[in-house]
Amino acid sequence: MRRRVLLGSALAAPALLALSSPPSRAQGFDHTLRIIVPNAPGGTSDILARLIAPELTQALGQSVVVENRAGAGGNIGADAVAKSPPDGHTMLLLDVSVLATNPALFPRLPYNAETDLAPVSMVIYAPYILTASNKLEAKDAQQLVALAKGHRGGLNAGNSGNGTASHLTQVALADQWGTEMTHVPYRGGAPALMAVTSGEADLTVAGATQSQPYAVNGQMRAIAVTGARRLASLPDVPTFRELGWTAEDAGTWQGLLVQGKTPPAQVALLYKALQEVLARPALAARIAELGGEPRADGPEAFRAWLSRETERYGQLIRAHNIRAE
């Protein structure tokens, strides 16, 4: 009966139907879509998801809502998407370094990132900023390295959790500098940053989306930034590349994935919508304010990045016998 009613409406008013039913809905997006963020509210992934959800709602012609599924180092949220129906209605948005590090950190994962999750696209890249406490004598990169080498037991390096990309970036830097650091894990980047502002921690490596305001306001000292270029808000702060440091492209790589068996046509439809959304000037400007840049790299580029970084992080984790908290 419902099909006959819809067909009759289409015959009676084809122009109206064309306006009210976006092409995406006709191809399978027929109910609310979810973006699952495997972290608590307030972090970079959560902020980004809530920025793009209304834009994707407009682009796809269906409501897009954000749902936080925090816990187990991101594995609870990732597993929820891995076990969701393969129809593209359930998406995972996260810092994808989690997917690159977790295979080496956790002996048993409830999902396989390579087969149970399908990349849609990178969404943004935000560089890391290495920041130091104002209580330290070091004013620049050279002074910080010298201080670290001369400090018995190493400087206290706050990070967003054991085995996270911020922690592993610190480990890689300490290796290159030929020194040790006392790694102090916190429950996320925000508490680590607060520890640096208070002087509880000597330094941290955190995403520019979170750390940039503290550095700009003088609550901590920015030492160096990852990525291809200096930040406009911190023009005097050199890049890791300029300093010849390792982990020069470390940072917050936020990506969007769906269930692994989602049809390629649905993945392509989501990617097209995301490209459209990220090209909107207002959204690009908001992302820039957060210290990031849109990166609408498609599924294959995303898959290649994940394979490469999983190997790189895995080697570092195994070499230092790092375990998840």
From TrEMBL:
Belongs to the UPF0065 (bug) family. Keywords: Signal. Residues 1-26 form the signal peptide. Pfam families: TctC (PF03401). InterPro entries: BUG, Bug_dom1. This is Tripartite tricarboxylate transporter substrate binding protein.
